[in-house]
Amino acid sequence: DIQMTQSPSSLSASVGDRVTITCQASQDINNYLNWYQQKPGKAPKLLIYDASNLETGVPSRFSGSGSGTDFSFTISSLQPEDIAIYYCQQYDNLPYTFGQGTKLEI
Amino acid sequence: QVQLVESGGGVVQPGRSLRLSCAASGFTFSDYGMHWVRQAPGKGLEWVAVMWYDESNPYYADSVKGRFTISRDKSKSTVYLQMNSLRAEDTAVYYCAKDSVAKEIAAPFDSWGQGTLVTVSS
């Protein structure tokens, strides 16, 4: 199985800050890498797909980059409503696997 | 709009069975792969199973292989997860999720249900 290592596991930042989360795959995943946001008590929401593509309706302050095994997710200007846990996920190989999550706090 | 509504969760004793349902609406159900993803209390996301749009080769996480079975009923636009020989470690919120691309094998999950809680306890 492909292991997804996400860091940091938690992050505290201020409104307006630029925030970056990284995700490393245990092997090349051909950019089949997604980022999801999960707010407390809610289902995950797709933000970024295929490493760098913004899902329709998602604010442009969210972005993703990377290739091969190393990927990053950035919020350019943190907003209060961005408080959530963020997960990366690979879908290059079954079983699909998620990173352990990054809890973002203000 | 797309709606996925899970049901069937509850409290069950170890070793017993439970069947979850996910009723879909707002899209052409037969064109999309459907997945189950679970989340143990306070833990991260774990992908569980997939039924592709063409119903070929369902696939399971090792943790549930041989105990869980995914199926779908096109006439009811519903995907199911039959869970047998349940263990305490199966306790989780179970979400169904939809592939984002029609008639594709493998795609991001663009819609999720609200989840249904399964608690395995004596």
Can you give keywords for this protein?
A: 7-stranded mixed β-sheet; 11 strands; B: 122 residues; mainly beta; 7-stranded mixed β-sheet; 4-stranded antiparallel β-sheet
Q: Can you give me a brief rundown of this structure?
A:
The complex is a heterodimer of chains A (106) and B (122). With 106 residues, chain A is mostly beta strands. Helix content of chain A is 0%, strand content 49%.
Structure description:
The complex is a heterodimer of chains A (106) and B (122). Chain A is 0% helix and 49% strand. Chain A is built from no helices and eleven strands. Chain A has strands spanning 4-7, 10-12, 19-25, 33-38, 45-49, 53-54, 62-67, 70-75, 84-90, 97-98, 102-105. In chain A, strand 9 and strand 10 form a beta hairpin. Chain A is globular and about 35 Å long. The mean pLDDT of chain A is 97. Chain B has 122 residues and is an all-beta fold. Helix content of chain B is 0%, strand content 49%. Chain B has strands at 3-7, 10-12, 18-25, 34-39, 45-51, 59-60, 68-73, 78-83, 92-99, 109-112, 116-120. In chain B, the strands form two sheets. In chain B, strands 2, 4, 5, 6, 9, 10 and 11 form a seven-stranded mixed β-sheet that branches. Chain B has a four-stranded antiparallel β-sheet with strand order 1-3-8-7, with no helix packed on it. In chain B, a hairpin with a 7-residue loop joins strand 5 (45-51) and strand 6. Chain A binds chain B through residues 1, 32, 34, 36, 38, 42-46, 49-50, 55, 87, 89, 91-92, 94-101, and chain B through 35, 37, 44-47, 50, 59-62, 95, 100, 106-110, 112-115.
